Hints:
Elements: H1 2-33, H2 43-89, H3 96-111, H4 115-142, H5 150-170, H6 174-179, H7 182-192, H8 203-220
Helix pairs in contact: 2-3, 4-5, 5-8
Amino acid sequence: PTAVAGSTVRAGIFSSLLMAFIYIAVTIAGTQSRGVLEASENGGTALAQIAQHYLGSAGLFILAATVTLACLKTAVGLITSCAETFSALFPDGPKYRIWAIIFSLVSLLFANLGLSAIISYSLPVLMFLYPLSIALIALALLGKFFGHDRTVYCWTIGFTLIAAVYDLIIALPESVFNAIHGPAIKAFGQQYLPFADLGLGWICPTLIGAAIGLILHFMRGNRVKA
């Protein structure tokens, strides 16, 4: 286990450095193209324009091959992992192969909506899930200090959920955002949620919830594990 953990850490550091290099290179390419190309609707269009500008038709071919290979491994990994998870969660339901086909077809349908539409409708979901995921990971890593008490989990996630809903509303498409009085909600959050204008309005509620949960944990001695 120690050797596996060490190898995983080294591989993670190496891959993180490579990814950082790639993103820095893409950022530089995008910045330098502003004086030559007009602003694009999304990053996919921008990459295609940059590749064609600097490398011509060969650039488009290289970009297409790179994106295909990069996305293929991610798609295969997500489809197989989701199919395995759902077949395990619902043993009396569809088998692994059926789940894999379902996720593949659903992905195919979403892919044809276009990158801009996908970003527009997936961003609110991501903004809702990110705070909750980060809070859960932090609780799991620090759980040994409070015995993984369910009380701490509930209070922390409960407060985080409120801020996560706010982040979801702020990230909604403009038409939906305006229909549910989004501007008023945004103004309220920016006034009363620290760091909300930076997209980090969930930090303080999470810390408050964790503090309440920890106080109750140590006062009541409740050690019911989550």
